[in-house]
Amino acid sequence: MKGGVTEEHLYLAYSHQFEDCIFPLHTSISLFLLSYCDCKLFKVFLVPASDSTDDQVFGKAQPDGLGVHFISRCQLPLVVQSCCLPAIVEENGKFCRAGLSVVLRHIIQKTYEVDPSKKLVLELLGFKKTCLKACAEVSQWTRLCEISIPQAVESLLNASPDQCQAIPPEVLRLEKKLGEPVRVHNDDKIRRQKLQQQKAGDQTATPALTKRATKNHSSEEGTVMEIKDQEPASLELKVAFSKLVVQEIPAATNREPSHIRKTKTSDLPPLEHVFAEGLYFTLADVVLLPCIHQFLVFIKKHNKKILDLPLISSWYHRVQEVPGVKSAAAKCNMLFLQFPNLLSSRDEQLRDFYTIPDDLEEEHEDYQFIGGPRPTMTKLMESGIEAKFSSHPCPRWTLDWNSLPAAVSPGEGKMSSDRALRKQQQLNNLVSMVTKLSKPGDVIVDFCSGGGHVGIVLAHLLPSCQVALHACGVATDMVIEHCIKAHAAFVICPCCYGFIQNTVKFTFPRSHQFKEVLSYKEHMILCRFADQTAAQLPPKRRLIGKHCMGLVDLDRAWAAEGCNYSVQVMSMEPESCSPKNNMVVGVPI
To answer: 125, 133, 375, 406: which could join 129 in a potential S-S bond, CB 3.0 to 4.6 Å?
Structure first.
């Protein structure tokens, strides 16, 4: 390709098309993002569900200016044939990215990499570039956007009219999500500005939107886009749309009045959703838009009322005002709806959530960890449960790093000498345990490999083993589950305890011993405080954090022991090698 950019192939499933939409919805979403980003870096292939599909029927739903090719499933590269589409394969055919969120994030990153002027495209990834980064097995929000809502809308469209009497519960979950207070970086400052605005009775008009700074939406450049009269002026809208103009609204230079500065954080007004994830337009909005559009088309076609969805209705109209959205929709032949009775009063609240499963309600609870972890730890102690650490079988064992090839040492990477030393100490612990467990002919599985330091050392020293380093949050439990299914030993150093939460695949606590004593909320308290082991924290705080780490990993160990494993939880040596220095070693009995 031009400029030395390696061409990649994008494979999309194709079952059928109806009016302005290609199904499955994952394909429509992918094509919409390509149009929004004005991205022509990928060779796009549609993979029909059956060989009898006629490529001539692929008509007006094809995005303008985007060349699309048909390919049968048997013609797919071998690396893709066992994957769920969409999938992206590099030109050499040896590396594949599969799954909607992974593919969409890669399209965004590749677009920006080739054309750094498209900064607004990169901002679709949100704060810290983490939008839809967590997999659906771990994040209920990713699962709702990536799987639940597309599947629910497709089921609705394919159902008979007499089966479509109720709004899908997945759509109701989105409505509920849009009604929750927004939490964003630096929201304290924005909430104080909102309080000041409320007290001053500020009703100034929301600023108009000028042309985008990027060049990928020429049809809208130079236009001025006003916020609709139906949207009352609000600080949230000003903040949200200020990111979509050439020059952002300048920050106020005047200091806030003393009564605003002295207001407690708990007394500040909450921020309301402007877009799906809060104040800013992100990839989540791009994923949801084609799905909700088809849902609303269905609603209008069947003359149904949606007064129970005022927030989704407002969101749907608001997204259309984002520069570039209408032109992308036009390229995809998506005709937005503009009927007045779609919107209900902004003050009208969602009346009925009885169809939302109870097991998903806990995700939205705002736990106030009153009393810290001590009441939970005391409750466990009264039941005879305390953190237990096995002694390290070889605390002074170390690799002879000087005798190893330079490429094997983590010091060869881009890290400080202090960090390289700590990394070597971590590897000493892992390799010492794997050496005891491995035997010739074993298969090496390096889960959550990160920089690959563990795999590189083991590949040099050992024929095979099973090992994971720093498996974040629920990833630890996923690794343990895979090892148990494979009847394999495991050596795991867990981290990111604060990200542990109930998911579709896992519920906490894990072991029946902990379940008999702790609720999910109490287990979450342990997880949150298990993350407080950083070196800069006071020694007493770190000690409590270490104890909470031990309890969380004891729960995991007991759960594995219930599957006929012998499990030990120990500390790496020296403990200063990592704030998260627990090591969980399991061997099938």
So the answer is: 125
CA neighbor of 177 nearest in space, from 28, 321, 360, 300: 360
Output the DSSP codes for 461-481.
H-S--EEEEEEETTHHHHHHH
Q: What is the mean pLDDT of residues 358-367?
A: 43
What Cα–Cα distance (Å) separates residue 134 from each residue in 146, 218, 278, 422, 452? 11, 33, 17, 27, 20
Report d(CA 367, CA 387) in Å as an integer.
24
Do 380 and 517 touch, CB atoms closer than 8 A? yes
More confident residue, 522 or 372: 522
CB 583 within 8 A of CB 493: yes
Which amino acid appears at position 232 of this protein? Answer: P
Specify whether the CB–CB gap between 369 and 525 falls below 8 A: yes
Task: Please tell me the distance from the alpha carbon of residue 19 to that of residue 61, in angstroms, as a whole number.
Answer: 7
Exposed/middle/buried for residue 65 (C-beta within 10 Å: 0-12, 13-18, 19+) = exposed
Three-state secondary structure of 491-548: EEEEECHHHCCCCCCCCCCCCHHHHCCCCHHHHHHHHHHHCCCCCCCCHHHHHHHHHH
H/E segment holding residue 234: none
Of 209, 246, 245, 249, whose CA–CA distance to 225 is shortest?
209
Reply yes or no on whether the pLDDT at 115 is more than 90: yes
In the predicted structure, residue 43 carries a pLDDT above the cut 80: yes
283 in Cβ contact with 209 (< 8 Å): no
Q: Is the distance from CB of 178 to CB of 310 less than 8 angstroms?
A: no
Read off the tokens for 300.
């209008």
Cα(84)–Cα(82) distance, integer angstroms: 7
Q: Both ends of the chain: CA-CA distance in Å?
A: 55
For 501: left if phi > 0, alpha if psi spans -120 to 50, otherwise beta; the answer is: beta
Unique residue bearing structure tokens 């009219």: 161
Distance CA 525, CA 64 (A): 52
Q: Are 310 and 343 in contact (CB under 8 A)?
A: yes
Closest to 156 measured CA to CA, from 311, 355, 291: 291
**C-beta separation of 12 from 44 below 8 A:** yes
Q: What is d(CA 9, CA 67) in angstroms, rounded to the nearest whole number? A: 12
pLDDT digit string (tens) for 88-105? 998 777 788 999 999 999
**Three-state DSSP state, 67:** coil
Q: Is 32 within 8 Å of 289 (Cβ atoms)?
A: yes
Strands, sheet with 466-472, edge to edge from the N-terminal-most edge strand: 445-447, 466-472, 490-495, 582-588, 565-571
Strands 490-495 and 582-588: antiparallel
Neighbouring residues of 336: CB distance < 8 A, sequence distance ≥ 6? 293, 320, 326, 329
- Amino acid identity for residue 258 in this structure: S
- 3-state class of 558 per DSSP? helix
CA torsion through residues 359, 363, 368, 370, sign: positive
Instruction: Give residue-wise pLDDT tens across range 376-390.
Output: 999 999 999 999 899
Q: Is 379 exposed, middle or buried (0-12, 13-18, 19+ CB in 10 A)?
A: middle
Residue 493 near residue 582 (C-beta atoms within 8 A): yes
